[in-house]
Structures are given as C-alpha cells and as structure tokens.
Write a structure and sequence with these properties.
Oligomer: heterodimer
Order of helices and strands of chain B: HHHHHHHHHHHHH
CATH superfamily of one domain in chain B: MetI-like
Bound molecules: adenosine-5'-diphosphate, magnesium ion
Strand content of chain B: under 5%
Mean pLDDT of chain A: 85
Helix content of chain A: 25-40%
Shape of chain B: globular
Shape of chain A: elongated
CATH topology of one domain in chain B: MetI-like fold
Strand order of the largest sheet of chain A: 6-7-8-3-9-10
Distance between the termini of chain A: 48 Å
Mean pLDDT of chain B: 87
C-alpha cells in the first residue's frame, strides 16, 4: 500500500485555501491530476450513458428526457438545487429506481432492468447507511462476503481499505461510536473495497462541517485518482462540484441545463439558470439585432449595444435573449473613459462598495437603472471608486455570453412536479 | 428524596430560611404522582401477592383444597407440584400450545408486518382491508371469535383438540405480533436494505443479514406477547379445545369443586417466568439499534 501522506496533503491544501479566489487555478490542477490517474486504470472503470431517461412519480417528472455520457475514470458531478432530480438519477444508476422511459448503460451494457445486486456499481449513501448492528470491519467486509471471497483475502483487503481511508485500527468500533467524518470514510471504504467499475456518491459531505468537508474533498479527489474508478458525485454545492469534478452537469427541474468542464460551464453558461446558479452573473435582457464576422450584437432593453462572439450565442435564431458577464470580468474605469477596441462598456454610478479583504465588491447602477455587480481583486493598483462616483464598466467582448431567458420557458414550468 | 433534590436552586446563604413555604409546597406536590402510582401498582399486584402467599398455606382435611384462612407456612405444595394429574397435563398442554402458537404466529405476523411496511397500493391491493381485519382481530370480543370458531370447526367436521387450539391461538396472536413488529419497523431506514443490495446481497440474504437482526427486538417483543396471550387464554380455548384441556380451562373447571393449592404454585411459577421475560425485554429494548 503506498503511503499517501493524507495528512500532509490535507494540510497543504487547506493552507492554500484562503488564496483560492481564482478558482480556475485549482480546477485545472485537479483536472490534470486526474488525467494521469485515469489513464493508468482505465480498464477497471466503466463509462456511463443515460439515453432519454425519464422518471415520473405519478404525474410529476423527477427526471425528464435526460441524456448523459460519463467517460470511464472520470470524476463527474451532478449539480443542482434540491429537488431537481439528482438523487433520482443516481438511484437509477444504482438500480434502486427504474426509469419510466429510456435506457441506462454501464460499460456499454444495458443495465436498465438489472437489480442493484447484479450491478458492478457501489454507492456511498447520503446518510451513509452503515449497518448499525455490525462493526466497522463487518461493514466493510459485507460486500466481499457476499461475493464469497475467502477469509484471509477479505481480511487483507479490508485492512488495506481501512488504511486507505485513514481508519486503521477501527475494525471493532460500532458505527454509532464514530464521528460523522469517520462514518463517511467507512461508507467510502465499504463501497470501494469491492473495486466497482463505478462509484456513486449522493451528497456525501452534506452532514460534515465546512472544515471537514474541505479535507474530505481533497481526500476523495486523491482516492479517486488513485483507484481510477469512475465517480459520479451528486451535490448542490456549486463550489464543491467545481473544485472536484473533471466534468459536471447542472440540473434543474429534471433536465440538464449545462454540461462540460467546470471552466467551460462557468465561463460559457448556456442557460440563465446555469449563469445564476453556478457563480454569479450580471444579466441584461435584450434582442439580437445583427450577427456578422462572428460577432453578434445585442441591443439591451435599455438601449445599449453589447457585442458577443457568435459562438457564445447558443441559438442565433432566438429573438429575446439575456446577455451576461461575470462580476470578476468587469473593470471599473474613471468617468469619461472611451470604449477600448474589442470591449463592451456600460456607464453608471457606484451605489455600494464593499471591502471583502481579498477584493472589493461594487454594486453599480447603470444609466438605465439596472444594477450590475463588479468584483475587483485587492491588488492595490487599480482605480478604486467610492459610493456615488460615476464610473465606466468595461470588459472584453470574449467574456460576454448570451443565454435563453427563463421567462416564457414553458417547457420547464410544465415540469414542476412538486 | 431530600429537600435538596426537590428544589435544585443554587443555595444562597440565608435563602433557605427566607422562603420555606413555596419550597415545602413544591416538595409536597412532588409526592402526589408517585403516591398515586404506588396505589395503582398495589391495586394491580394485590391479587398476585395473595396467590403467592396462599401457595405457601397449609390445608386441612383430605380434599387438599385451598382455603383462605391462614393455617401456617408450608412448602409442601412446591414439593408436590405435580401430584394433581389433570393439572399437570393441562399445564404441559398449555406450554406446548403456547410454544407452537408463538413460533407460528411470530413467523406469520413478522412477515405480514414487513409486507405492510414495505408495500403500498397499487402494488399491494387490499392493504387497507388487511389493516382493518388486523384491528378487528384485536378489538373483537373474544367470545365472538371463540364461538364462531367453534361453529366453523363443527361445520367443517374438524375434531376439536390440539390442532384446533393451535389454529385458534395462532389466529389471535398474529395481529399482536404484526402490530409490535410494525411499530419497530416504522423508524427503519430503508437505505440500509438498499446498501445491502448495493453490496451484492440478494433479497433473502438482505432480509436475514440486515432486516431481521435490526427488527429482532420487535420480533422478540411480539413473540413474548404471543406467548403470554396464548398461555392464559381461556375463552377461545374453552370453545375449541374439545377434550384437550389447557391450564386455564382446567382451573376454571376445578373451581366448581375447589382449587388444589398446586394451582397457586403453577400460577406463581408462571408469574415468575413472566417477570423474568419482562425484565429481559426491557434490556433488549434498551439495546440501541
Ligand atoms: N419516491 C418518490 N415518490 C414521489 N416523488 C419523488 C420520489 N422521489 C423523488 N421524488 C420527487 O422527484 C423530484 C426529484 O427528487 P430528487 O431526485 O430526490 O431531487 P434531488 O436529489 O436533486 O434533491 C422531487 O420533486 C421529489 O419530490
Ligand atoms: Mg438528493
């Protein structure tokens, strides 16, 4: 068993946290780390496909015509608010719920009708579901016993696994004697010891406090790249999903609203829901007025023209759209500044300026009365206006995106089951 | 109980002397409920205590029947516990009957409870009807069940005896087992069974390895209840026993002539065993799951 030096890694990662404001750094790092891990073990993990999966409970749709492809060895997150169908999707993968329509494929095999005990899949349940009448050893050994693995082999593998999750010597403890974090690691060990092709995790961190959650995220990510198993991770915590995942899907009302690497989905949201759920966005309603030379111009409702690269418009035939920009992409410059080439500008007046230590958050009221949030890093060199100052907001065109507005999206409203 | 127990206020110097009246009143109030409880318990225990006491009483005359005048202490009846042949065989019949009925009723009742907790309409049609029958089974006067069973057995031309006794006892015990096990299962985390499936356990293995151990306290409590119901059943047994006469029916028959003191010996014994199991069940129930 390799020495993973878990403690040190937790430490170093935790220490790095406060400076983690630019998320992209951590993200690309973890993606890189994963790529190595998965290649080495790709034969042990399975890819997953959802083909037109629909799940209805009575008349209510929990999942609606979901199509999804998860690659072997990938750390994939299903992200969305409570009740959007994440757990239901995961349960259909585990075999606990049968889709009303569609097919589920794991490793190319159609498992739609297979019961859980015939699937090469293991689950870490949200409540951990440790067997309260069995001790830690018996809990972890449960799956191996069912497979008829012989005693000495079980002993070896359980021992190794308990070491991997940093719980050596806990064999004879009862689950009730463990802390939340320890229980969660037992649940993880109990699933991983079976060397499944696919591991499902349903909000495994939700019962942990913030600090422990951070440690477990790092540990989980390490374990995943070590074992090379495909992980499908359900969470409603957007930051957790972005820091851990190779790719993620944002779900809403039983549908996927956006899918891709965290960076892609964050930088180029394709729906208003994604733009607001994953991080914060400034969104302005408007209409597409022209599209030429790969540049599309949107005339906002307040009469300002905003230019967007055409590839960032999900559908050029949309008439009314929302055009958006992330708060950290905007620069504040003094009143009277001219538009730089390739930039969009808005004019306004600072209403609120909040110092947050790592940066300044401004709420700027534009000429048309729309409020725009701007986030500036505290690097001490740039223009720092105060409340009441007139300013110009400017950002590069390539940081602009357009999304289909929520209003009038009847399809989504129809799906509201609860 | 001391005054300090009754009034857990931080004791400040002088405070004790200044406010004796409210404190005493509160103190007295604390005795009302305990005293009441002890009176109720005395009321409940008195007949049993009398039975135990008179199982040590001497008798006069050749008939060897219980009299309720104290004639002196003896353990004679404990030595001669089996010297009344009809009584002894009735007792063993009751034991056999209770054991067989308990085992059958516990198995049937437990599975029924699992089914009722697990499945719902439309998959489980008639669930509500089953629940109502269970309730009726508990609520219906035993005399109705006993007489109707008698009618049924006569109509079907079934010889009354051990078999009919078992059928009848299992019938009235099932509902109690089901209700007890069901109560135990109501807080059962379904995810535990799913975790077992997830780890490769088929449904039967899941039931024996996970479900059953976890609901065992409820099953044991149900079994205990079934045993207690069966061993002291009179009404139904009187109707369906035919020539098989269990202990309570025998005692009832004997009272017309007079009760041999051995009845009190058996009574005391059954009570002692009952106490033992009651205490045991408290410990089982305390064991956290
Ligand atoms: N067994 C069920 N019966 C009826 N409705 C259900 C059931 N399970 C989930 N739902 C409904 O399906 C929707 C999605 O639930 P779920 O998948 O648990 O969401 P999430 O995990 O994203 O919070 C919710 O509206 C929920 O009420
Ligand atoms: Mg959920």
């Amino acid at each position: 068993m390799p020495d993973w030096g878990l403690e040190e890694h937790w430490q170093s990662d935790c220490n790095r946290l406060p400076s983690m404001s630019g998320r992209s750094e951590t993200r690309s790092e973890s993606r890189f780390g994963h790529a190595r891990g998965s290649k080495a073990n790709s034969s042990e993990s399975a890819d997953v496909r959802f083909e037109h999966i629909t799940k209805r409970f009575g008349d209510a749709y929990a999942v609606a015509d979901l199509n999804l492809e998860v690659h072997a060895g990938e750390f994939f997150s299903l992200l969305g608010p409570s009740g959007c169908g994440k757990t239901t999707s995961l349960r259909m993968l585990g075999g606990f719920e049968e889709p009303t329509e569609g097919r589920v494929l794991i490793g190319g095999e159609d498992v739609t009708d297979l019961p859980p005990y015939r699937r090469d899949v293991n689950t870490v349940f949200q409540t951990y579901a440790l067997f309260p009448h069995l001790d830690v050893y018996q809990n972890v050994a449960f799956g191996l016993r069912r497979q008829g693995v012989d005693k000495s082999e079980i002993k070896r593998r359980v021992g190794e696994m308990l070491e991997m999750v940093d719980l050596p010597g806990f064999d004879r403890r009862q689950p009730a004697q463990l802390s939340g974090g320890q229980q969660q690691r037992v649940a993880l060990a109990r699933a991983l010891v079976n060397q499944p092709k696919l591991l499902l995790l349903d909000e495994p961190m939700s019962a942990l406090d913030a600090k422990l959650r951070r440690q477990m995220q790092v540990e989980l990510k390490r374990i995943q790249s070590q074992v090379g198993i495909t992980f499908i991770y359900v969470t409603h915590d957007q930051e957790e999903a972005m820091t851990m995942s190779d790719r993620l899907a944002v779900m809403w009302h039983g549908k996927i609203e956006g899918m891709g690497t965290p960076k892609d989905v964050y930088d180029n949201p394709t729906s208003e829901f994604v733009a607001t759920f994953l991080g914060a966005s400034n969104l302005l309603g408007g209409k597409i007025v022209r599209s030429e030379d790969n540049r599309t111009t949107v005339l906002t409702d307040s009469g300002v023209e905003i230019t967007v690269p055409s590839e960032r418009v999900p559908d050029l035939s949309m008439t009314s759209v929302k055009v958006g920009v992330r708060p950290e992409k905007i620069d504040l410059v003094p009143e009277g500044s001219e538009r730089a080439p390739g930039h969009n500008i808005l004019r306004g007046r600072v209403r609120v300026s909040t110092f947050t230590g790592v940066g300044n958050q401004y709420i700027v009221e534009t000429e048309s009365g729309v409020e725009v949030t701007v986030y500036a890093q505290n690097i001490g060199t740039q223009f720092a206006p105060r409340s009441g100052d007139n300013v110009v907001l400017t950002w590069p065109e390539e940081h602009t995106f357009t999304v289909r507005p929520l209003v009038g999206n009847i399809e989504i409203n129809e799906l509201e089951g609860d | 109980m001391s005054i300090a127990d009754a009034a857990p206020i931080e004791v400040q110097p002088g405070a004790v002397d200044r406010s004796p009246t409210p404190r005493r009143r509160r103190h007295a109030g604390r005795f009302i409920l305990p005293t009441y409880s002890w009176l109720v318990i005395a009321y409940l225990v008195f007949p049993i205590a009398m039975m135990i006491l008179y199982s040590f009483n001497k008798v006069v005359g050749g008939m060897q029947l219980v009299s309720f005048t104290w004639l002196g202490f003896t353990t004679q009846w404990y030595h001669q516990w089996s010297s009344v042949p009809g009584l002894t065989s009735a007792f063993w019949l009751s034991i056999r009957l209770a054991v067989v009925s308990t085992v059958l009723a516990t198995i049937i009742g437990t599975l029924l409870a699992v089914a009722l907790v697990r499945y719902h309409p439309p998959r489980f049609r008639g669930k509500t009807a089953i629940e109502q029958v269970l309730f009726l089974n508990i609520a219906a006067p035993e005399i109705v069940m006993g007489s109707s069973l008698l009618g049924l057995f006569v109509m079907l031309n079934i010889n009354r005896g051990f078999l009919t006794l078992v059928l009848a006892h299992v019938m009235f015990c099932i509902a109690y087992v089901t209700v007890t096990v069901r109560a135990r299962m109501s807080g059962f985390d379904r995810a535990l069974e799913e975790a077992a499936y997830d780890l490769g356990a088929r449904p039967l293995v899941t039931f024996t390895r996970v479900t059953l151990p976890l609901i065992m306290p409820g099953v044991l409590a149900g079994a205990l209840m079934a045993f207690a119901l069966s061993i002291d059943d009179f009404v139904t047994s009187y109707f369906v026993g035919g020539s098989s006469i269990p202990f309570p029916v025998w005692v009832y028959g004997a009272t017309r002539v007079g009760i041999p003191p051995q009845v009190f010996v058996f009574g005391t014994g059954i009570f002692a065993v009952g106490i033992f199991f009651a205490v045991l069940s408290i410990f089982v129930a305390k064991k956290k799951v």
